[in-house]
Amino acid sequence: MGRVMNNIFQKNISALMVKNQELAQKLLKYIPLEVPMLVQENGCFNLQYKGKFIHNKTNPLAEAQEIFSLAENIPVAIHLVYGLGLGYLFQVASLNSKGTVILYEPDLNLLWLSFTLVDFSADILKENVYICETFEEVSEAIYLKSGMKNIPQLLSIPTQREFDKKGFDELVFNLKNLIGSYSLDLKYTKQRFYPNLLSLLKNIPFLQEEEPLAHYKDIYKGKTAVVVSAGPTLDRNIETLKANRDKYILFVVGTAAKTLYQHGLKPDFIVIIETYNSKRQLEGLDLKDVNFITEPYSHTELRNFNFKRRFSHISANTPVNLFWGDLIGESVEEYWSKGTVSYTALNCARLLGCSKIVLVGQDLAYIEGQCYSKDSAYKDLVCGINPENNLWEIMAKDMDKFANAISVSEDPEKRLAVAKQRLKNLNASLHVVKGINGEMIPTESVYAAFVQPLQEYVKHFDDRKYINTSLVGAQIDGFENLSLEEALKDSAPVGDIELNSQYIFEKQRLFDNLNVKINELEQALIIIEDGKQVLKSLNNEIKRHKDINAEVLKILKKLSLIYLSLSSEFTEKSEMFDFITIAKRIDLDYEMKMTQNFTMDAVLNISQKMFDYFETAKVGIEKVSNIVREVVNESFNTEG
Questions:
Q1: What is the largest CA-CA distance in the chain?
Q2: pTM, whole model, 2 decimals?
Q3: In degrees to the nearest 10, what's the CA dihedral of 551, 553, 557, 560?
Q4: Half-sphere exposure of residue 479, counting CA atoms within 13 Å on the CB side?
Q5: How high is the mean pLDDT in each 10-residue block of the chain (640 residues)?
Q6: Pick from 472, 476, 479: which is nearest to 437 by CA?
């Protein structure tokens, strides 16, 4: 029996070596702690583990088939199977899934035993199957396959959930945050890549006078930084901030700026990374002695204020910034970011050398019904229990004031529409998170998703001291929870430190590189025109025969090859082409994956989306080329 089991184990390990070598090596070295009992009841095999049966005692295969039948099964589906046991559910999913199967078995003891009893080698080797033992591995697999229309479906056997209810509940909690984060990433990709490119190009005249922040690395070495966000607890710390103003470098996110100014606190740095026109965060403020940190692609209007100096934080996780870094020959590896301005401000403090970084107003939760600081742009929002449904809900105390605070439109109806949509979005993403005091407290799902990146950040840069002064907000592991008084009591005065640099912007290098990029786009136009001609032939053939015949399929294949040339090969060659077309490419890729039968409706649908793709590419290329020419001409005319 031992030899047979060993052969099965070796087959599974050999297959796993191909898909997850690290896990395979871990299983080879693993010594089981507790061996479940293999039993047979009603003609079916089962496992008895920790005094309980893992599978249904009557018919475990039928149970697995029923569970899988309830899941949506389409080509882009992600079937996340929790727990292996004897593999009934996993093998049903492996056999039937039209999409992706991710097996997550966190119990190494059970995984090892299952590998000695059942031959899973054929399942493991399937291209659409992933085997995971940690949530990090699950995250990577989901990230590879996730999209806006294919949220992972969690499949599990009830008895397996009961073995580790706490662990299962934690998995569900983490999955919600993970999916929210990935959905935001994809939504951002679709909605912002192209606008960010346009904004970046339009900002070039300003960027020539905007120094990359990394040129001042460690200038505040050994000093204390206070990073202020607009959370409700900011109000509680105002007096302490005023009393100790000489002890810290003050970094402030835009939404908190007016609160500080109203109390006589002037920041050293204001940090804003928004791509929309957020000038109202700064209107009416005396900024001539304040430094401004922003992204290269942030809204142009922000750069029209009279700041002391402007600096670029070229976030390395944003593709358009990687593109910009290449254009100007600037490394972006120091610019850590996760899409939140508070995270960016934290990284600025670390990059400039501050050894103690103190967060103020970083609640990441709605505290005592208050969503934001009382003087922030969002001060009119409150969070409370709706008596009609007994659920948490975000409301505006004064809708008109809220609308005026967040929208710059001259039309009051448009301002109101923006405010209502913002409220709708906030309530749609209402979430709960673990608080510093251990209780679950309400927050926005986006804020809940910010907790883990902050924790990972301080774990990576562990040579600093990090303090969170919220005391009532979300728990952020890695930050010491202290009052602001305690956090600052041993901080020495900062003194006068001048920001001096010998940085010279290489204008000619930038324009030479832009010229190369524009030439690449012009090459794409030739391929696009070929594609449009083939698309025209396809539509003519369909109109002529009113049927999907062999000739239609032949032309469709030719069209697909042209699309593949653009969406794959040319996208890798030209970043700008990728930014211009990525939204349409995501939609078209999804439709093509979903198309299993080339019916008339399916072909016409693909034809229309191909047309949209080609037109978007052509219009985008022309627009980008025109902006670059205008920027170059303006720059040299100004110089002359």
A1: 91
A2: 0.73
A3: 120
A4: 28
A5: 64 94 93 82 82 84 93 89 92 94 92 92 95 90 72 85 78 73 61 90 94 96 97 94 98 96 97 92 95 96 95 93 95 90 97 98 82 68 78 82 83 89 81 86 80 93 97 95 98 92 88 94 94 94 88 92 90 92 87 80 90 95 94 70
A6: 472
